[in-house]
Each structure stands twice: as structure tokens, then as C-alpha cells.
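User: Here's a chain of 771 residues. Predict its fold as C-alpha cells.
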Amino acid sequence: MLPSPQPLSRRAIRIAGVVQGVGLRPAVIRFARDLGLVGFVVNETVSVRIEVEGPADRLETFVDRLPSSLPLLARVDSMEVEDAPLGGETEFQILVGERVIPSGDAPALEAIPADLAPCAACLREMDDPASRRYRYPFISCVDCGPRYTIVAETPYDRHRTSMAALPPCDACERECADPGDRRFLSQTDSCPSCGPRLSLIRSGAAALRDEAALAAAVTLLRAGGILAVKGAGGFTLACDATNDSAVALLRDRKRRPHKPFAVMGRSLEELERIVSLSDRERETLLSPARPIVLAGRRRRARISRHVAPFLTELGVFLPPTPLQRLLLRDGPPLQVMTSGNLSGEPLAKDDDEAQERLAHVADAFLVHDRTIVARADDSVVREIDGRVTALRRARGFVPAGIPLPLEATTAVLAVGAGEKNTVCLAAGRSAFLSPHLGELDDPVAFAAFQEAIRRLQRLHGCPAVAVAHDLHPDLRSTRWALDSGLQAIPVQHHHAHVASCMVEHGRVDPVIGVAFDGTGLGEDGAIRGGEFLVADLRSFRRIGQLRPIALAGGEAAIREPWRLGLAALRDAGCRIPTDPSPGKVGAVLRLLEGQPLHATGAGRWFDAVSAICGLRAEISYDAQAALELEATARGASTWPPFEFDVLDAGGTFEIDLRPTIRGIDAVLRRFGGRTPRHYGAVQSVAARFHGTMAEAIRAGCRRARNEGAPGAVALAGGCFQNALLVHETRRRLEADGFEVLVNRLVPPNDGGIALGQAAIAAARLSPAAGS
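Assistant: Prediction complete.
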């Protein structure tokens, strides 16, 4: 007698996280068919829904083993399982078409991953002369290729990406339909017959195509020319990184006199000829995100002196796209690859835009006919105190979400600061940062800012009802927020910095916040930048600050640190140096005798010391003086910190750096003056000043703890991009028993401030906030 067939059951499963564009549906269909189950899998707006039917024991196996059966690139943040009525299908299939999320569900969950560098299987195929994709510049599969930068809408299907304009040929269609093929359901699948095509455009010459375009581009690079290349999220400008004339020409045309350029290498071995890499830095360079990694320059590295003048580190990375890999393989093995823009602008994204804006920079344009939907600059990271820290978060990391330590019951948009701008959307237990957008005073950047706001809400299916913004009324981001019609929530600049660090570490309860950056408006209207706070995610109180430094000439003092050096020397009672330019010192002294603006900015003190040491009198990019001071300090042996005082200041404390400046002045005078030719003395001063600032933070935190503050310290703000400062500060604080929190996932600079704004606004809007 035959056994009775088992009764059938059905389960409905919804998975949220990084679940679209990573090969999840092909993995699900293979797993279900292996178990003899029927049903379907379909992309929803920001999740994937699976309905599966069969005998109860096999359904239990499917549900239990599903998370471990998904592709490596998938990330499951939540998985809901419920019973469902029988559907009666005869096979398991993939449905194409959006399923609307029911009203009331929290929709702000990730759906698609960031752009992914070519995987090993695609690279092998690209190098195989027998493959139909041999030397194909747009090779990809379910494990790699563009994602964020080509998606217009979710759910993620080809017709909602810029690949919709490039329908697959019959051969690619067969691959996409074959469950046994690694390109099964690949939305970016293409080949030389049907995919994007290369073109080289040069003034006065006919456009070249495909291999001829690539060959001409390589010839141009080898001859010392400048090439504009359409990359993953926008245009980059390339030249031979070992050719002094080419790099100097790029600097001149790009109007970028000193700011360092990034160098892309043919291989890890090529990069290791010019930089020393730790194991963690190698791992990061090889990761699918392919960020720029700041690493120590080797002595006598064969690289142009114009790549990163006056610095001891180089930004290096490996090709994030197949096209760039071909340029490196055929052309110079080390190439400058820098943002395709002029100083202060966002990178160009579209072909016409690039040819208009970069006409006087590039000698030729290597383009293709796949549209870039979303701008995404190259990400930049640095190993700080043994951990990789994001300094610019864009391609390769966006749109990955950041878990929130509280529920954002109201969808909140945060619009960030004015420089290094990003915007953030928070809903449910997740926050999503846009890519780096740049300085909003530039009209192109402001247009990108507005598009990023629309895109965040569109991709995550979540319109914001409130907007968090900086206190500064003149920032374009603030003005946009106040004009938006949304509920506006003002957030103090340094509270937002500290909150961004707290979010990363899952903190809600109070911490000591040390907010060190250049400039941020206080709630009292004062210009701040070096503050000690006791803060949670709803509120803060200031407990201390650095001594204010005079900004003689206002913004001019930030561009010309010699003014800050002069102000610091005068404030400390030191002898004023001889005026090298008749009238300039006298004019500034007259400003200082009046009532100039003052700021507590820690960054301004680093600038002042750099100027006093004779390292940098004027800057051409943000934080240049401080970066060169850190680079100088790295060559010194250990020296004790200079003296400073901790003074009472009406219920708070003030770190008085006048004794420090007097000590610096005495050392430099003893060794013959403030000039870099006495470099040993300058190195000593630079190192001792870093130690002094770390010791001052320690003193402030000790005082705060003695007065009842908590034992966790969040180090936040742009000054904590300085690896030496972080190391010296952490070492001292941990010796005193403090727990030290620093940013890693988001930049400690203003690029991470929108995350803090969003978290603070979400906390204030939470029902618990009023209880």
C-alpha cells in the first residue's frame, strides 16, 4: 500500500536588507527547485517576497536554510515568515513586477547594493582570448558591476535602470534565462554585440569606436596627455602619474595647485612600489568597494613630485571598473585618476556636461553610451589607529544603510552642512546617507543636492515629513530646509558631529563629546570649533572649550593661516616677527587691536601652529596647513607636550593654549627662527603640538568625569581625520579608563554630519521624547 502524500502548506516570506541586484532571486529559485517546492519570488519596492509551497517538512528546511543559501553579497536585516493560502502552482518561478508595500509598514530598508568592482570570474573571462567578452570594457555578472549609479527606480529590474536602453542580444538572453549560469537574471548582462560601446572624442577629429578608441586613449596617456574617462559614477581625469609635466599640466588646467591627486595602479604590486601597505590596507584596496586608500609614501617612490606635494601619504586605489582596468593594463601602470571637475565643482556626470565643463582640461574624452543615473565620486578611506575610517563616503559604499540605535517613527530628512555636503534619510531603524555632494555654494553641486534628496526618498519608498538642518542661517542647505514646507528641526553643528559618532556605536545615553573641527555656529551665535559637550541623542550642554583665536579679516584668516599665527603670538605675549611684506603685518595688527571675530576652532589652532612653524602661510585647499603639520610631525621622535592651562570660565572650563604658543616660540627661537630650514626643530614642535592637543583633551575629559560626566568619550569632527591626533588621544584616554568612540563608517568631517542631524531629529520626534 502506497504511503499517503503529505498535505501541502504554504509560507510567505519577506526579506529586507541588501537583497536586490546581488543574485538573490536566482539563488532562491535554485534552492526551491532543489527541494521540489513551487511558488514564486518577486522584488518589492525595498524588499523581496517569496511564496513557497510544498510538504511541511521541506518548507521547514527551506525556511531554516534560506539565510545561509543566499549569495555572499546579500545582507539580510529582517526576515518575516507567515502562513499563506495555497496557490496551486506547478513550478517555482520568478515574477517581474512591483508588489506594493502595504500601508503602515516601515519602508526605509535597503534594496540594492553599492556599485561593485569586477569579480574574479569576470576578470578571468575578460582576459581569455577564447571568450566572447575578451577585453570587453563593461563585463559584469550577478556578483559585480554597476548598481546604485544606474538605478532610476526600485524594485531593481533592468527596465528601471539605464541598461533599459541596451536590450540584451539572444546569447545574453539565454544566459539570463539559464538557472545554471552565473548570469542568471543579471540585470547588467551585456556583451560587445549588445552592450555599451566606447567612443573617443577629440576636438577636430572623427570619433573613434571600441578598440580603436581604447588604443587612442592609451597613446594619449603615454604621450603625456590628459584624458577624461567616464567612470562608474562620473568622469575622472587621468594622466601618467610618473610624468612630472603631465601632472603639472593637469594641476594648472584643473586650477588645483596643491591638493593631492589619487593614483590608480595596474595591480597591488605596482602600488606597493610607491606606498607601504598594512594587511588591512591591502584588504581594503582589494575589496569590491575599491576605495582610495591613504597610505604612507615610500622613500624614493617613482612618482611625480606634483602628485601630493608636501605630504607623506599618497591616495592609491585599484581599478573599480573594467574600462579603467584596460587603461591601466595597456597604458602607464600608475595613473592619476582624479575627479572630473574644476576646483569646487562636483564631478561631471553626462557626456555633454563633461565636454562643456572640461573642454579646457582634457585633451580627449573616453565615453560610452550607458547613462550614469546617479553621481558618485570615489570614496576615500584612511587607516586610523588600526581601523579603516571613511573620509569621503561615496562609490562602493552608498547606498548601504547605517543601523539606528532608536526607532525613527517619523521619516526624517537631514540636509547636512555647507561643505563636504551629504544628505540623509532616516526611517525605522535605518539611516541612509547620500554620496559626497561637495560645496553647495556651487550651483551644479546645489542641483545635485536637490536631486539626491529626491532620489533618497524615491529609492527607499519613503517621503520625509520632517527635515533637520544646521543652525547657520546662511547655509544653502538651511535655506532649502526652511523653504521645504516640511517640519524643520534645527540641530547645533557639533551636537550633530557627536551624534554621528554615537549612532555608529549604537549609543543613546550621554557621552562626553569632544567636537574638534574648523567652524560651526553655536546656539548662542558664537563661532565654535573646539568644544567639550555632555550629549545624548536629544540634547547637549557645553562644559568646556578651547581658548578662542582671533580671525583677523574673517574668512581671510582661514585662507591665510599666517594671520592666525600672528594672532596667536600676539595673544600669548610673544614678540611679533618682522614684516616680510611692508604693511601686511601692521594691517593685521590693527585689525587685532579692534574687535575681530573670534573662534574656538581646533582646526584654526592647527593652522596657526603650521604658520608659526613656517610650513604654510596660505592655503589652496581645506585643511592644507593642518595636513602638512601632521605630515611634518610623523618624522619626529617622541617629545613631551607643551604646557597649557585649564581655566574656569563661568560654569565651564577653557583650555588656554597661550602657554603652548610661548613654548613653541621659545623652541623655534632657540634653533634660529621660524623657517623650515631648521627642520628638526619644526618636526619636534609639530609632534609636541599634537601631543599637547591630545593631553588637553585628556585634561578636559578628566575634569568632566570628576564633575559627574559619563566615562565614554566620542571624538568627532574633522580634526579627528588626523591619525596622529586620534592615536595620541586614544592612548591617553584609555590609560585613564575612558571608553573611546570614533567615527569609522561615516566621515568624522562634515560629510557625516547629516547622520547626526537625522538621529537627533528622530530622537526628538520619538513619542518617548515627550514622556
